[in-house]
Amino acid sequence: MKIQVKFFVPLNIQVGTNQLEIELPDGATGRDLLRYLADRFSENQSVRRRFLGGRVLFLVGKEFISLDSPLQDQMTLVILPQGSCCHP
Amino acid sequence: MKGGYVGKILVVDLSNNSTEVQELPEEMYRNFLGGYGLGARILYSMMKPGIDPLGPDNIIGFVPGLLTGTGAPFTGRYMVVCKSPVTGGWNDANSGGFFGPELKKAGFDGVFIKGAAKEPVYLWIHDGKAEIRSAKHLWGLDSEAGREALRKETDPEAQEAMIGPAGEALSYMAAVMNDKHRAAGRGGAGAVMGSKKLKAVVVRGTDEVPVAYPERLKEVQRALSAAMKNSDLAKLFHEHGTGAFNGPSALSGDTPVKNWAGVGIIDFGEDGANAIAGPTLDPKYKVKPYGCANCPLVCGAHYEVKDGKWIKGMTERPEYETAASFGTLLLNKDAEAIFACNDICNRYGLDTISTGMTIAWAMECYEKGILTKEELNGLDLKWGNAEAIVELTKAIAEQKGIGKVLAKGSAKAADELGKGHECLITVKGIELPMHDPRLSPGYARTYQFDPTPGRHVKGGLGGMQLLMPSPAKYIPEGTGFLDVLLTTGSEVESSAGLCMFSGFLGMQNLAQRLIEAVTGWNFKGQDVLRTGARILNMRHVFNLREGFTPKDFVIPPRAIGVPPLQAGPTAGITINAQRLAENFFHFIGWDMETGKPSKYSLEHLGSMDDVIKDLYG
Ligand code: SF4
Fold first, then answer.
1. What is the CATH number of the domain that holds B171?
2. How many structural domains compose chain A?
3. Contacts of A64 (CB under 8 A, 6+ apart)
4. Are residues B197 and B265 in the same domain?
5. Residue B528: count of CB within 10 angstroms of its CB
6. In a domain? residue B217
7. CA-CA distance, B536 to B554, in Å (whole number)?
8. B455-469 pLDDT, tens digit each
9. Same domain membership, residue B367 and residue B407
10. How far, in whole angstroms, is CA B80 from its chain's centroid?
């Protein structure tokens, strides 16, 4: 399946792109996507740790979905970095 | 003396125009470090309980951190201490910039000012000397014009801690300003200065503050530089400051929305979150970075608004707390309106958190028909109305119309108007800051029971929990020890004068290593715990002596999910604040009913004989 992934600011700065189209096997979950992204951006240690540690939120439309949710073909997923001014 | 402190404080009595230099023994610094630790110890001894916070018996102290002025990284900070006119109890507020190091270099570890002048004055301290000078001609100047005028008549490189018109008019939200835009903002210390007719403390110093082991200090500095180079987050923070995460915080449940009753993704939306995000704004407005003294991270920035509706020209990039208070909290997506409110608050000397929160309270009151348009200076105070938000901020700064009432803060405004109490989000009269316990439950305990309630910069579990998964972080059992450990660590960090962002670089035991290098003391993990607990207790017993008990500190139900939100990432969450508090009290040794620290724990901490006598006879 193909999904559109949008990286919410400031994650877009860290990964160097606003959006990616990603192909994943059918039945893949959010965690599979995070593993894929950790590999793809493995040269950036803090980004890699963020993906592997699940320190992100998944937004679909106006709904937050669990990182364990199965992903759907053609869906658009916004990934928000979990963090704050004092704890990035 | 080996290093870190100069061993002297200046005590000023404005009622009789006197100044006195007092020497402090080394054990004072060993036990209470500097900053608010030293401040709490000194104010407990010098001040009587029950005094009027806006009367001459209140004492206001300006106290740099223990390491401030030594060139140690991240240590450009000082703290203002006094009795708060907002809470009626202990107050400390922390600010960066360049004032703290300058005071140390001028020969003092702190300045404590009592009494009240009959006419406006300022205190001019330069290389060990102090003069009280007339400030009649400066009264009414804002923090920018005031700084310029003060530098003109003292020294072009002087640094000042001053009040703007808000402090002069005794606004309970008045901040103490330095560097034009840095604020020791919370708790109404600006009003205390105003009540003393003290426009400013101006300092210039050229002495060096001793460092016990300069080589060890350089070693730590080198390690920090290496950590910086490898940290992508440090780069992000340097570029975009505390605003880097404005966007995610607006949606994740970190930033409170619509006076704590809304949901980011529904009420503010992705577009709103994007509109106020630092990285969205910086390319358009940022002209140069700004950092505090001796800071390797440099997280501030000067902005320029070329053709704005409210501002034209230079202003400061709002910090996260400000962007959240005037943005997400009010559903305001107009970034330039946030800049304008920030600018007004900086110039007049107002705490941006309390001001934004007071406007949020007024907005909810307006929505519910508790306050009418007529009562609100004719403003249509609908959520997100940028125009009205800027106008009301101006009215609060100038104390015009409803602004005169709102300048007292939301809790006192509700009392004075006799309505709107159900919309208050305050603890002990002070507005809560911009991190929501429904996402990071530990903030509930910190906001409720730090001796300065309602502070996000005080220690506890909240910050760490932000990055933790649910549901583990919502289980209150077993949290007490870690809560105490993090809180006492933060007490040491602050009193040493370290910026809380120094932790970004992930360097283990940074405060401890710097304290050892600068002072030459043997300062290990157990010293951090014991010293931090001593400082925390010192601030806490100040409140007990005022007659407070834990029952006086009530967390607003909405802030802990009573009732829970119906949507968003924290939907359905209710925090067991009582249990979090019980765990903390148990480990720190405080009685849950009376708040009293056990006699044993005070004896164990040491240097608190007078406190033991006051509490136990
Ligand atoms: S990190 Fe920012 S607030 Fe902290 S000392 Fe540096 S410039 Fe100041």
1. 3.60.9.10
2. 1
3. A57, A58, B265, B568, B569
4. no
5. 21
6. no
7. 19
8. 999 999 999 998 887
9. yes
10. 9
Shortest CA gap A72–chain B (Å): 21
Burial of B576 (0-12, 13-18, 19+ CB in 10 A): middle
- Answer for the pair B353, B431: CB distance below 8 angstroms, yes or no: yes
Cβ–Cβ contact A45 with B under 8 A: yes
Q: Is B454 in the pocket of ligand 1 (CB under 6 A)?
A: no
CB contact under 8 A, A86 and B236: no
Inside any domain, residue A33: yes
**Residue in B68, B179, B299 to alter for ligand 1 test, most ligand atoms within 8 A of Cβ:** B299
**pLDDT tens, B304-349?**
999 999 999 999 999 999 999 999 999 999 999 999 999 999 999 9
The alpha carbon of B545 and the centre of ligand 1 are apart by a number of angstroms equal to 34
Report the number of distinct structural domains present in chain B.
Answer: 3
Q: Give the global pTM.
A: 0.98
Instruction: Kindly state whether residue B472 falls inside one of the protein's structural domains.
Output: yes
Q: Is the ipTM of this complex over 0.90?
A: yes
Preceding peptide of B471 cis, ω within 30°: yes
Ligand 1 near B499 CB (within 6 A): yes
Structural domain that includes position A16: 2-81
Q: Does residue B392 contact residue B364 with C-beta atoms inside 8 Å?
A: no
Is there a contact between A59 and B265 if contact means CB atoms under 8 Å apart? yes
**Chain A nearest C-alpha distance from B456 (Å):** 9
For residue A19, list chain B residues with Cβ-Cβ distance below 8 A: none
B469/B380 same-domain check: no
Distance of CA B573 from the midpoint of ligand 1 (Å): 34
Contacts of A46 in chain B (CB under 8 A): 231-233
List the CATH number of the domain containing B605. 1.10.599.10
State the residue range of the domain holding B477. 442-453+461-616
Shortest CA gap B249–chain A (Å): 6
- Please tell me if the CB atom of residue B295 comes closer than 6 angstroms to any atom of ligand 1: yes
Of B233, B321, B467, the CB nearest to A46: B233
Of the partner residues B266, B270, B500, the one whose CB lies closest to the CB of residue A86: B500
Pocket test for ligand 1, best of B94, B294, B298 (most atoms within 8 A of CB): B298
Rg (CA), chain B: 23
Which residue(s) pair with B177 in the sheet? B162, B183
Residue A88 lies in a domain: no
Tokens 């003109």 identify what position? B152
Query: Chain B closest CA to A40's CA: distance in Å?
Result: 17
CA distances from B288 to B76, B127, B293 (A): 20, 32, 16
Whether B424 and B446 share a structural domain: no
Domain harbouring A55, CATH code: 3.10.20.30
Contact indicator for A87, B463 with CB cutoff of 8 Å: yes
Mean pLDDT in each 10-residue stretch from start to end of chain B (617 residues)? 92 98 97 98 98 98 98 97 98 98 98 98 98 98 98 98 98 98 98 98 98 97 91 92 97 98 98 97 98 96 96 97 98 98 98 98 98 98 98 98 98 98 98 98 98 97 89 94 97 97 88 97 96 98 98 98 97 98 98 98 95 97
In a domain, residue A87? The reply is no
> Chain A residues with CB inside 8 Å of B246's CB?
85
Chain A positions touching B249 (Cβ under 8 A) are 83-85
